[in-house]
Amino acid sequence: MTEAERIIGTPDTPEAAGAEPEQDQTARPRGKRRIAVLFTVAAFAYALDLVSKMIVVAKLEHHEPIEIVGDWLRFEAIRNAGAAFGFGEAFTVIFTVIAAAVIVVIARLARKLYSLPWAFALGLLLGGAFGNLTDRIFRSPGVFEGAVVDFIAPKHFAVFNLADSAIVCGGILIVLLSFKGLDPDGTVHKD
Predict the structure, then answer these.
(1) 49-107 confidence digits (pLDDT tens)
(2) Is the bond leading into 21 cis (omega within 30 degrees of zero)?
(3) Which of 77, 122, 136, 188 could form a disulfide with 61 if both were Cys (CB 3.0 to 4.6 A apart)?
(4) Vertex 113, ends 108 and 117: CA angle to 5°?
(5) CA angle at 16 for the pair 10 and 22, rounded to the nearest 5°
(6) How far apart are CA 127 and CA 79, in angstroms?
(7) Has this prediction a pTM greater than 0.85?
(8) Contact 166/45 with Cβ under 8 angstroms?
(9) Catalytically annotated residues
(10) What residues contact residue 122 under an 8 Å CB cut-off, 6+ apart?
């Protein structure tokens, strides 16, 4: 069957009669590979974030900041009970619930995932959300109220961590994919 016939259907195919197309046997493994990419990227982002925070807490907390690139970039251990840029310190529990909801939404979306770029983007979001959620659950002052460990401090900018970086990069990639018309299920649409 030619590509055009597959897209528009022919009178003797179920697609032309308005029926659902038959499942291609190669579609499922392809989708499973995308899910594997999503969880591999998420695990990698989470592991990098977790290890970096462990090192920061062990070696940098309660010490002077370390200059990395002159005064333009330094590592400085900070505990952030709020959201990005330190806002909303009184709403730590709400941020915990939001991070958990993001994880659930990504897990549900993974079933319909057939796009490699989307798998990568969602993997970054998932890994970053898990990284900051781990801090919210297990760090002081208590469960669901924990302060996130931030340590990357560019000059004239907020202090952040690798989980924040993964979330921002994943979000930017999702916006770009959306502008290009690529959906998580692999379809491309032109508006």
Answers:
(1) 999 999 999 999 999 999 999 889 999 999 988 766 556 666 777 877 888 898 899 98
(2) no
(3) 77
(4) 125
(5) 100
(6) 20
(7) no
(8) yes
(9) 150, 164
(10) 38, 42, 106, 109, 110, 113, 170, 174, 184
Cβ neighbourhood burial of 17 (10 Å; 0-12, 13-18, 19+): exposed
For residues 168 and 178, the answer to whether their CB atoms sit within 8 Å is: no
For every residue of the chain, which 3-state class applies, written as one string? CCHHHHHHCCCCCCCCCCCCCCCCCCHHHHHHHHHHHHHHHHHHHHHHHHHHHHHHHHHCCCCCCEEEECCCEEEEEEEECCCHHHCCHHHHHHHHHHHHHHHHHHHHHHHHCCCHHHHHHHHHHHHHHHHHHHHHHHCCCCCCCCCEEEEEEECCCCCECHHHHHHHHHHHHHHHHHHHCECCCCCECCC
Specify the residue for token string 């959306």: 178
Over the stretch 117-157, which tens digit does the pLDDT of each residue have?
999 999 999 999 999 999 989 998 888 778 899 999 999 99
Place of tokens 């692999």: 186
Which residues lie below 8 Å from residue 62, measured CB to CB, with a gap of 6+?
77
